[in-house]
Design goal:
With 457 residues, the protein is α/β, with parallel strands linked by helices. The protein contains 16 helices and 21 strands. It binds 5'-deoxyadenosine and iron/sulfur cluster.
């Protein structure tokens, strides 16, 4: 049989494009979805218009995030029509948290969508995609008792192509805390932990593929627990000690944590492990006990401040980051000022802040005393001004300091590299500083709100 040499396999393979919205967990899931599709013979394309299969891996956390998906579907519909005129098809799928929250409703509202798959069903994607490609609508939003990761192919991409020197590993998923503002317990289900074995295997594969820094992910990552050797119950602290032993893994991080799961083992790990970076993302959301209670956060303002004290005892240079919501129902000016004063006490290195967005099905959406939009908007501005000021102060305090940075990727300008500081700052250095993947000592020469500039020492 003669081969048509002009026809490389790539030219005939089906192409896929995944667009990711929302959190790092979705970023990680999108990669695993890619792995699963590639195992079925799909190849990635950088052009959505070129894709036989487009998946939108969506976020439902705030109204804006969810609505963005529908406006994007409107645009993709036109791409699909343009392809149809050329005799080509396009299968459109919605995965992620909007898929879980809205299910088949998505197809009612946007009939161009062929597939809907919630976050706990990705191991079934090959099957679902095949069904959608055949022209049948495919909808799957069941929560499986078995962990989805156990049934998904291993992170093949780590072996087949470079994925950079930093990587995420999901270790925990879901939430049992039921904060009254939040959709996550409904979209991601109850708290589940991956096994020590699965996590260590994945981390080793990543290290072999050149990854130097791993960030452990979970909606409540510090609620992770698993069985260590001799069937002893481990918490996240013990897992970190274990991962720190892997050759090639130089740096560890984890996010996002809940204050009530910051146990002594985990706090101690911050004091003991050099490779555990001095950075903690610990959302508090609000600084008034009344609002914390209404949010069902299970802790007080003082509990949080005490935790901060403990963290700084074991790791005095730790950078604290947080999430804040302004305008939660019932929030008065005095409550809001409690949030500002908490921020002044803690001194954040970075933070994410949001205007409260009532989400269907959550208790908060039905509460009395919803805060008017303009009041919430004005509070958000004041809050962000304070947080920006603190972030700049944190960065300015780094001036003239020497620190170890991980050379991560090419910079925007020719001849530059972007490096990562221990405190998760972006540091711009000259490419002569070293090869990507190295950790080098630099001195900070400039500090801006969102980045630092440094020279090799
Ligand atoms: N409105 C505004 N912000 C929210 N967050 C979660 N739910 C809402 C909501 N309904 C924020 C919280 C959380 C972060 C991921 O998003 O601050 O920590
Ligand atoms: Fe968005 Fe939360 Fe889902 Fe992440 S888990 S995609 S933040 S709704």
């Amino acid at each position: 049989m003669t081969e048509n040499k002009d026809l490389a396999p790539q030219a005939t393979a089906k192409k896929y494009f995944v667009k990711t919205y929302g959190c790092q967990m979705n970023v990680y899931d999108s990669e695993r979805i890619g792995d699963a599709l590639e195992a079925e013979g799909y190849v990635a394309t950088a052009e959505m218009a070129d894709a036989d299969l487009v998946l939108l891996n969506t976020c439902h956390i705030r109204e804006k995030a969810a609505e963005k998906v529908y406006s994007d579907i409107g645009r993709i519909k036109k791409l699909k029509q343009a392809r149809a005129e050329l005799g080509k098809s396009m299968t459109i799928g919605v995965t992620g948290c909007v898929a879980q929250a809205e299910g088949a409703e998505i197809i009612k509202r946007a009939p161009v969508v062929d597939l809907v798959a919630g976050p706990q069903t990705y191991h079934k994607l090959p099957e679902l995609v095949a069904k959608a490609v055949r022209g049948e609508k495919a909808v799957e939003t069941e929560f499986e008792i078995e962990n989805k990761f156990a049934k998904m192919p291993a992170a093949t991409r780590a072996q087949t192509r470079s994925r950079g020197v930093t990587a995420f590993v999901t270790v925990q998923e879901g939430c049992d805390k039921f904060c009254t503002f939040c959709v996550v317990p409904y979209t991601r289900g109850s708290e589940t932990s991956r096994s020590v074995g699965q996590i260590v295997d994945e981390a080793k594969r990543l290290a072999d593929a050149g990854v130097r820094e791993i960030t452990l992910l979970g909606q409540n990552v510090n609620a992770w627990h698993g069985l260590g050797p001799n069937d002893r119950e481990w918490g996240l602290g013990e897992l970190l000690y274990k991962l720190a032993e892997i050759d090639g893994i130089e740096r560890l991080r984890y996010m996002t944590s809940h204050p009530i799961d910051m146990d002594e083992g985990l706090i101690a790990a911050h004091g003991d492990l050099d490779c555990l970076m001095p950075y903690l993302h610990l959302p508090v959301q609000a600084g008034s006990d009344k609002i914390l209670k209404a949010m069902n956060r299970h802790h007080t303002r003082d509990d949080y401040l005490y935790l901060m004290e403990r963290m700084r005892e074991v790791r005095p240079d730790i950078a604290i980051s947080g999430d804040f919501i302004v305008g939660f129902p019932g929030e008065t000016e005095a409550d809001f000022e409690d949030t500002l004063s908490l921020i002044r006490e803690v001194k954040y290195a970075s933070a994410f802040s949001f205007k409260y967005s009532p989400r269907p099905g959550t208790p908060g959406a039905g509460m009395a005393d919803q805060v008017p939009n303009d009041v919430a908007g004005e509070r958000l501005q004041r809050l962000q001004a304070l947080l920006n000021e603190q972030q700049l102060t944190f960065n300015k305090n780094c001036l003239d300091q020497e620190m170890d940075v991980l050379l991560e990727k090419p910079g925007r300008r020719e001849g530059q590299l972007i490096a990562r500081s221990p405190w998760l700052q972006s540091v711009i250095v000259d490419q002569s500083t070293g090869p990507i993947g190295d950790i080098v000592k630099v001195r900070i020469t400039e500090a801006a709100p969102n980045s630092l500039v440094a020279v090799k020492v």
